[in-house]
Amino acid sequence: MQYMLMIYGNEAGMQSASKADAERMLAAYGAYTQAIKSAGVLVASGRLRPSTAASTVRVADGKTKVLDGPYAETKEQLGGYYLIEVPDLDAALSWAARCPGASHGTIEVRPIWTM
Amino acid sequence: MAREATRETAEAVARRSYGKLVAFLAARSGDVAAAEDALSEAFAAALTDWDAGGVPANPEGWLVTVAHRRAVDAARRRRSGETAIPQLALMAEELAEELAAAQDDASMPDHRLALMFACAHPAIDPGIRAPLILQTILGFEAATIGSAFLVSPAAMGQRLARAKSKIRQAGIPFRIPERADLRERLAAVLEAIYAAFAEGWSDPGGTEVRRRDLAAEAIWLGRLVASLLPGEAEAIGLLALMLHAEARRGARRNAAGDYVPLAEQDPALWDADLIAEAEALLLAASRMGAVDRYQLEAAVQSAHAVRRSAGRADWAAIRRLYDALEQITRSPVVAINRAIAIAETDGPAAGLAALAALEGDGRLSEYQPYWAARAALLASAGDIGAADAAYEKAIGLESDPAVRRFLQHRRAAMRSV
């Protein structure tokens, strides 16, 4: 089954982190990505730019409305994702627990619809 | 074969194997609801088929084969995508092979424990785990479970359906967890079983059949887990605890239906066989070198059971056990029981001092046993005014009429002295 691991974290906290902390975090993500790749379960992954770079689009009554900012203005924002292919939820949860984001934020684990 | 006899045979098979059949089917597809539906269709088919052609040599195998065929048909009807059908067909082949190997019910692979672990998975809402186990393993209907847990049948049905689709959609596995996770995950299974038992226990008079059944069924589940994981002290300890409690069921009400507190129960009314079984289990658990909450609580029950031979419960032991339990659970309920034990060993003033340490705990202000314990200790310490106020509070918070009557009698007796 495919699962999306969505990494939610405090953007302000991330931006105000010291250079050393930020580098340590980056290195941790590097090692995690390497591990998940070598396990052969990674389908795709990506790190998102901060929600200040987000735009939102809605079409109502045939008119396209574009807004500056994320879907919801919350302290915790989606910061990145891993799309993985594993046998079951337990395997997905154990990968989520290893993600560096799990120790400073929250990982939401969602199964992907199988078509 | 007579219709009535066929029905009886089918019912006997359902009682013996319902959970095993659901687990067997669901372990393959990951779909509990579909397994239950298919199985109920298979039972319906059995009533007419067995009537005409006689009961098959291996009724469980017959039911599982028919149920699986129904499940494949249902998947086809739903047109649940072209990929799913070959997969189901493949599973049908595997199933046929496995069933050919299994000559009878006893050699059929038992996935009930795996199903229980799926039901008590950390990704399932803790409140629905016990109802889910009761439904999938024991075949209880949503209405029955709902009334035991004080939830409307419709709401319970919805919550059960949601949990089952969570299991299927989220890909919750049907297996016994690895060693590293087993303890923690087993704790959730045992907690669900204990919750079911507690629901059954809350009808001490046994006047509500469905609740009494719940306690008996929880013990059955406890036996099942203990027999499938014989090396797990926690599972053995829980079974010992439930059996000890169940042994006293007959003594918890007098002939008039009035509540009889443990200290005043007639030990002759306790079930000696159940106590003997509980004691043997407790001894086995204590030799496994791991102490846990259930084992300690079972040991408390054992120290009460001592009253049968010694004439008095072993309060010193009970106090030590509650000391240990408080360290593990940090539960205010345990702290209340510890205070009662202290009052027995060191007198009511010491018990009240231990209770006083709990006064800041907001959880207790609406907890009847706290006020009842306080009232009893104040009364024996001679502080009639404060005891009266505590009785007032306890009576106002009690929902069981028999216990309420008991508290009112106690209060009246205290005033008349």
Q: Name the average pLDDT of chain B.
A: 87
Largest sheet descriptor of chain B = none
Largest sheet of chain A: 4 strands, antiparallel
List the helices and strands of chain B in order: HHHHHHHHHHHHHHHHHHHH
Instruction: Describe the strand arrangement of the main beta sheet of chain A, using strand numbers.
Output: 2-5-1-6
Structural class of chain A: alpha+beta
Helix/strand order of chain A, N-terminal first: EHHEEEEHHE
Kindly report how far apart the N and C termini of chain A lie. 11 Å
Q: Can you count the helices of chain A?
A: 4
Helical fraction of chain A: 25-40%
Q: What integer value in Å does the Rg of chain B equal?
A: 25 Å
| Sequence stretches where pLDDT stays below 50 over 5 or more residues of chain A | none
The helical percent of chain B reads over 70%
What's the total number of strands of chain B?
0
> Beta-sheet strand percentage of chain B?
under 5%
Structure in words:
The complex is a heterodimer of chains A (115) and B (417). By secondary structure, chain A is α+β, with helices and mostly antiparallel strands. Chain A has four helices and six strands, in the order βααββββααβ. In chain A, the strands form two sheets. Chain A has a four-stranded antiparallel beta sheet with strand order 2-5-1-6. Chain A has a two-stranded antiparallel ribbon with strand order 3-4. In chain A, strand 3 (55-60) and strand 4 (63-68) form a beta hairpin. Chain A is flat and about 45 Å long. Chain B is built from 20 helices and no strands. Chain B is elongated. The model of chain B has no long low-confidence stretch (mean pLDDT 87). Chains A and B meet through helix 3 of A and loops of B.
Features:
heterodimer, A: 115 residues, alpha+beta, 4 helices, B: 417 residues, mainly alpha, 0% strand
Produce a short descriptive summary.
Chain A has 115 residues and is an alpha+beta fold. Chain A has 4 helices and 6 strands.
